[in-house]
């Protein structure tokens, strides 16, 4: 069963809502809006799935923001795109799954990134990044993908 989680980022003027397994735990990560981790039936010797949400300043164009994100991912060691989807209609979003070799552990890791472009006076990108070990089966990858793709961004009413 999933639970709905909402975070308000008042200084940016948005809220972020997502759905995650109810047994996933929140943990602190400096600078992040939210970070969660939990079990999805991954192998015991594999990286525990996790997800992190953050808000970053963006250029005035969604295409440029997404191109930069893709370029950043492609510099990861042995990076290989698994799936990729982009839609520039409002709200513009870019989703990509990438396998790469983690520089600290030398193990293969899979990251699923779902980025939403928010055209505010100072544009931002809400990034939802989920990770699992390279040995994870397709159900774990589908699970982390569903979590990050459940992300919805809304503009807050201004007084």
Question: What is the terminal separation in angstroms?
Answer: 36 Å
Radius of gyration: 15 Å
CATH architecture: 3-Layer(aba) Sandwich
- CATH homologous superfamily (4th level) name: Mog1/PsbP, alpha/beta/alpha sandwich
- Class by helix and strand content? alpha+beta
**Strand line-up across the major sheet:** 3-4-5-9-8-7-6
CATH fold-level topology: Protein Transport Mog1p, Chain A
Q: So how many helices?
A: 2
Number of beta strands: 10
The general outline is globular
Fraction of helical residues: 10-25%
**Beta-strand content bin:** over 45%
Number of domains: 1
The ordered H/E elements are EEEEEHEEEEHE
Mean pLDDT value: 93
CATH class: Alpha Beta
**Major beta-sheet overview:** 7 strands, antiparallel
Q: Which spans have pLDDT < 50 for at least 5 consecutive residues?
A: none
Protein model, in words:
This protein is α+β, with helices and mostly antiparallel strands and 159 residues long. The chain has a single domain (2-155), classed as Protein Transport Mog1p, Chain A. It has 2 helices and 10 strands; from the N terminus they run βββββαββββαβ. Strands 3-4-5-9-8-7-6 form a 7-stranded antiparallel beta sheet, sandwiched between helices. It has a 3-stranded antiparallel beta sheet with strand order 1-2-10, with helices on one face. Strand 1 and strand 2 form a beta hairpin. The longest helix has 13 residues, at 62-74. The radius of gyration is 15 Å and the shape is globular.
């Amino acid at each position: 069963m999933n639970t709905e989680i909402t975070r308000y980022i008042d200084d940016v003027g948005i809220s972020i809502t997502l759905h995650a397994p109810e047994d996933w735990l929140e943990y602190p990560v400096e600078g992040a809006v939210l970070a969660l981790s939990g079990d999805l039936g991954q192998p015991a010797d594999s990286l525990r799935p996790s997800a992190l949400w953050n808000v970053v300043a963006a250029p005035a164009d969604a295409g440029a923001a997404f191109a930069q994100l893709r370029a950043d991912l492609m510099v990861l060691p042995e990076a290989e795109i698994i799936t990729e989807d982009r839609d520039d209609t409002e709200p513009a979003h870019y989703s990509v799954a990438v396998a790469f070799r983690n520089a600290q552990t030398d193990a293969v890791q899979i990251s699923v990134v779902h980025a939403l472009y928010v055209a505010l006076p100072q544009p931002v990108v809400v990034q939802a990044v989920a990770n699992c070990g390279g040995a994870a089966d397709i159900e774990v990858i589908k699970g982390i993908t569903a979590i990050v793709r459940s992300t919805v961004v809304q503009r807050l009413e201004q007084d």
